[in-house]
Amino acid sequence: MKTILMSAVAAVALTAPAWAQADLDTNADGMVTLDEVQAANPDITAEDFSAMDTDSDGALSAEEVTAAQEAGQLPAAE
Ligand SMILES: [Ca+2]
Ligand SMILES: [Ca+2]
Fold first, then answer.
1. Within 10 Å of residue 35's Cβ, how many Cβ atoms?
2. Protein residues placing their CB within 5 Å of the ion ligand 1
3. Rounded mean pLDDT of the chain?
4. Strand partners, 60
5. 54-78: b or e for each residue (b if 16 or more CB lie within 10 Å)?
6. For the chain, what is the domain count?
7. 7 in a structural domain
8. Has residue 30 been placed in a domain?
9. How far is the CA of 50 from the centre of ligand 2 (A)?
10. Quick check: is 52 in a domain?
11. Is residue 35 part of a domain?
């Protein structure tokens, strides 16, 4: 029973598209700001953030977070 429940949780985590971003988005407003990125990754600079913010709106969307992680600009959430 316990195994079935854990498998279900794992499946949900794998299929949720924005799970990594949700992890960074500490105030849950749907966007990841520089402060939120730095809270999890103190080494990220404003310059690094600008490079990841491809549409320059001052925050990272789920797509931008995923792209940054795939490009190695942002550590992938564990
Ligand atoms: Ca946020
Ligand atoms: Ca953006």
1. 10
2. 25, 27, 29
3. 84
4. 32
5. eeeeebbbbebbbebbeeeebeeee
6. 1
7. no
8. yes
9. 9
10. yes
11. yes
Q: What is the CATH number of the domain that holds 47?
A: 1.10.238.10
Tell me, in angstroms, the distance from the centre of ligand 1 to residue 51's CA. Answer: 18
Q: How confident is the model at residue 16 (pLDDT cuts 50, 70, 90)?
A: very low
Q: Which two tokens stand for residue 27?
A: 């105030």
Closest C-alpha to 26, from 41, 12, 16, 15: 41
Domain interval for residue 44: 18-78
Looking at per-residue confidence, does 56 or 75 come out higher?
Answer: 56
- Per-residue model confidence as pLDDT tens digits over 45-65: 999 999 999 999 999 999 999
Question: Measured in angstroms, how far is the CA atom of residue 9 from the centroid of ligand 2?
Answer: 29
Measured in Å, residue 56 CA sits from the centre of ligand 2 at 5
* DSSP structure string for 5-65: HHHHHHHHHHH-TTHHHHHH-TT-SS-B-HHHHHHH-TT--HHHHHHH-TT-SSSB-HHHH
